[in-house]
């Protein structure tokens, strides 16, 4: 059994203004397709990162433990926490700026290399909501941003599973209030062979996707890896740091799709 872990970055609501910033115009779904070997590799890397000593003072594992004791909340490695020094990393805001940046860079670079070296399939779907809004105005057709992104993603996932001869897979998505909508999407794809695009030249093997399930990200380190992947793609597409994207995109199993096309 193969497992596809999926998380998103950005907001699915369409921009209210035509002048919306590049950052506000993006919605990303990122998927890591893992087998037992790649899951074992990423788990070992996750543990290695937790035990790394930063600035000769602390480990992430120690920060996690302290955070859980103080707040009673489960700690996790989320891109927003690392970037903004929030959650388990809030105490690091007292460090000098250069040391804060070194911490962020070390974590993101380590995670990027771990994902690349796990040899897992990486799928990133980027929806440009500014372009999509113009397309909708031009054609009069309505698109749901999240369902469109997942349609693209599950279509590519079906092709990958078939091409590699995988018998079946299960999708684990970060918990969302759109759970029922995403389950319905997969049901329609299986029954109809498409959702938004009836003109697909090659029908994907949606039947190879057994089910889509949902978990809180703190319950799965693999969802945390997917969250960081989505964030890395989001940053580069919004004109920010390219370093970590370059590492992940260096994998021969990396695929990215941007819609609508220019």
Short summary of the structure?
The model has no long low-confidence stretch (mean pLDDT 93).
List segments where confidence is low: pLDDT < 50 over at least 5 consecutive residues: none
Structural class, by secondary structure, is alpha/beta
Q: What about the largest sheet?
A: 6 strands, mixed
Strand order of the largest sheet: 7-6-1-2-5-8
N-end to C-end Cα span: 37 Å
Dominant shape: globular
Instruction: Tally the beta strands.
Output: 8
Helix content: 40-55%
Give, in order, the helices and strands. Answer: EEHEEHHHEHHEHEHHE
Can you give the mean pLDDT? Answer: 93
Give me the number of helical elements: 9
Return Rg in Å: 19 Å
Portion of residues in beta strands equals 15-25%
Write up this protein.
This protein is 47% helix and 19% strand. It has 262 residues and is an alpha/beta fold. The protein is globular and about 60 Å long. The chain starts with a strand and ends with a strand.
Keywords:
single chain; 262 residues; alpha/beta; six-stranded mixed beta sheet; two-stranded antiparallel ribbon; 9 helices; 19% strand; globular
Strand and helix layout:
Layout: E1 2-10, E2 26-34, H1 36-51, E3 53-54, E4 58-59, H2 60-71, H3 79-84, H4 97-117, E5 121-128, H5 129-139, H6 145-163, E6 169-174, H7 179-192, E7 209-215, H8 221-237, H9 243-249, E8 254-259
Helix pairs in contact: 1-4, 4-8, 4-9, 6-7
């Amino acid at each position: 059994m193969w497992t596809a872990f999926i998380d998103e970055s950005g907001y699915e609501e369409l921009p209210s203004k035509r002048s919306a910033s590049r950052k506000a115009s993006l919605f990303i779904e990122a998927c890591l397709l893992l087998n037992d070997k790649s899951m074992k590799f990423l788990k070992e890397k996750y543990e290695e990162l937790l035990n790394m000593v930063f600035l000769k003072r602390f480990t992430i594992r120690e920060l996690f433990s302290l955070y859980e004791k103080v707040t009673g909340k489960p700690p996790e490695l989320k891109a927003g926490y690392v970037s903004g020094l929030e959650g388990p990393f809030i105490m690091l805001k007292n460090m000098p700026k250069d040391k804060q940046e070194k911490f962020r860079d070390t974590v993101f670079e380590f995670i990027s290399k771990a994902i690349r070296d796990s040899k897992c399939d990486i799928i990133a779907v980027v929806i440009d909501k500014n372009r999509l809004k113009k397309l909708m105005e031009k054609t009069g057709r309505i698109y749901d941003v999240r369902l469109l992104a997942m349609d693209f993603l599950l279509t590519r996932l079906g092709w990958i599973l078939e091409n590699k001869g995988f018998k079946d897979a299960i999708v684990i998505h970060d918990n969302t209030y759109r759970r029922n909508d995403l389950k319905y999407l997969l049901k329609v794809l299986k029954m109809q062979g498409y959702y938004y695009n009836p003109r697909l030249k090659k029908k994907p093997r949606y039947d190879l996707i057994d089910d889509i399930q949902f978990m809180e990200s703190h319950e799965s380190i693999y969802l945390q890896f997917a969250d960081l992947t989505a964030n890395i793609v989001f940053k580069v597409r919004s004109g920010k740091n390219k370093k970590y994207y370059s590492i992940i995109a260096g994998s021969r199993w990396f695929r990215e799709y941007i819609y609508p096309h220019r």
